[in-house]
Amino acid sequence: MGIASDLVLIIVLSLICAVFARKLGQPLILAYIVAGILLGPHTGGVTVSSVHEIELLAEIGVALLLFVLGIEFSFKELKPVKGIALIGTPIQILLTMAFGYGVGLHLGWDWNASLWLGAVMSLSSTMVVLKTLESQGLMGTLSSRVMIGMLIVQDMAIVPLLIVVPKIQTIGSELGALVWACAKAGIFLVAMVALGRKIIPAVLARIARCGSRELFLLSTCALGLGIGYATYLTGLSFAFGAFVAGMILSESDFAYQTLGNMLPLRDLFGLLFFASIGMLLDPSVIIDHPGEVLTLLAFLMIGKGAIFAILSRIFRYGNVIPLATALTMSQIGELSFLLASAGAASGALGHREYSLILTTAVLSMMLTPLAARITGPLYGLRKRLVGHGPLQTKNLPPSDAMRDHVVIVGGGTIGGMIAGILRRFGHPFVVIEDDYRAMEKLSKAGMPVIFGDAGNDVVLEAAHVAQARIMLVTPPAYAVVQMVTKMARKAAPELVVIGRAHTGEEMRALAQDGADIVVEPGLEASLEFIRQTLSRLGVSAADIMRFADEVHRDLYAPFHEEMSANGVGGALRISQRLFDLHWIELPAGSPLGDRAIRDTEIRTRTGASVVAILRGENVDVNPGPEKTLRAGDLLGVIGMAEQVDALRTLMAASEG
Hints:
Residues 403-519 form the RCK N-terminal domain. The chain crosses the membrane at residues 6-22, 29-48, 54-71, 83-103, 115-133, 145-165, 177-195, 215-232, 268-287, 293-311, 323-348, 354-374. Its main location: membrane. It is found in: Membrane. The structure is a single chain. This protein is of the alpha/beta class and 656 residues long. The protein folds into three domains: 3-374, Na+/H+ antiporter like fold (Up-down Bundle); 388-500, Rossmann fold, CATH 3.40.50; 579-656, 2-Layer Sandwich (Alpha-Beta Plaits), CATH 3.30.70.1450. It is built from 30 helices and 13 strands. Strand 5, helix 22 (478-491) and strand 6 (496-500) form a beta-alpha-beta unit. Helix 3 (51-72) packs antiparallel against helix 12, helix 9 runs antiparallel to helix 10 and helix 14 (290-314) packs antiparallel against helix 15. The longest helix is centred in the first third of the chain and has 38 residues, at 171-208.
């Protein structure tokens, strides 16, 4: 059956390896690479027959990954990292090439082979880095944006590298070709972005009006892969063109529909990519040249990682970012295989050198998910051993005035909006922000801000969390929220911590880590959809409010149950959540109707307090004891759960 049977073998074995990897707590990337090693031509046993065809399909996987990434990201999100991306990445490529050249000479390679080694080492793997960030829940963090910005520029650099490196001895005569290739690519990209923003949404709108899901799926695939191929014809990489198409599409009305269609295809072809990487590994190279393989791998991971870390610091990225870039981007990239093949075809790389490079590349990709996992523990160890340097703070009030304030972790969209509202109400607050540029923006707006990592004791002390009333942990990455929640609870046991989660599992985990309240943006968005829908359907405001209140309690019930298991401290904190505002409609025929609040003795009989009355479209906040209750009133009631239940029972018993 040829390639069909090969695909079946790869998918089935990848599934088996993935199950074992999941049970062992290992990244799925490793499972797919191991499946490729087992099915590759160098390990014997069951072997795929169409390795080259699998590699071609894997290229589509890389393109689809970047197409989806382009949809998820926008040009605006990459602006904050344009400095390190546009200036830092070329510096990183040159430094890594020089370093790799020195490594090659150290191993006894001639100058030409050493030069190709440096070029191969200079690029990182977009596919591996993105999958690693995604599996660790770090997409959307500042460190992920830094890495993505640098990876994009690295992908663009493949063109000048393929032109310059083979002709390094005659670079003067090839300079015109290099300039023309770069100019041609630049003109194409500018035209694609300028025209694509208008033409692509219009074309998709026309296709969407046909009402065919299959036609829309086909058109989006053709869009991403077609633009990728057109970009390839101009000399840039196929995958980079797909990324540009995704970024253009991200600003249209069809972004989310396209994203939903592409995700299954991306994951399937991504599996083929990692399996194809595993097929390149020849165990005999490791057996025959263990010293050279280990030397190359060690120099690559340590030396290249150090270059990333130093550049991150030079471009004023602090906290965990230098360490994260060092451990996550130190592998050899998939586009480096093009360079290695070109070097072998030109005769600069012999069979031995070429095999060593391929083996080192595959091993570095396999080690990346494991290396990235130790970023957090290593950063924690560094903080304990080295401590924290002088903090940068802007607009902070005097220390004695930092009491009963709100600490906002993250000055992005959510944190910045909260800070603006708190300032309008005159309530004291301080923002902790680890992005220097975002910190400068907040400081120019007059916001009190601390530049640093909220998971650091020194930063928390500077924010006076022990004297604060509330901490809001707003970053989108769950790993960051979890770490900060633990640190805040340790530093200030009585502090009310409000965290952010994306799933029920994350909500329960944050409750165990000490969060008092967890906000799930998806749940809150669904509630707002419910409110708006019912309002347009003519449902009364009273019924909408009551229904939304009940749904809200039900959705967050598992979170409350989890928190109740936290002992005395958890019980004290959850009481604050249980002591909530409930909306109860006063039924017709109740003896509580047509009576003043003082005469109903609601508080004496149930312990609950009426703090608001919604009558029609009018809301009476904090009504006086003389206020008369009417049938149909929606009462805003505060009390413990059992007190509110007692009032409901009282009302129900009063009917009839």
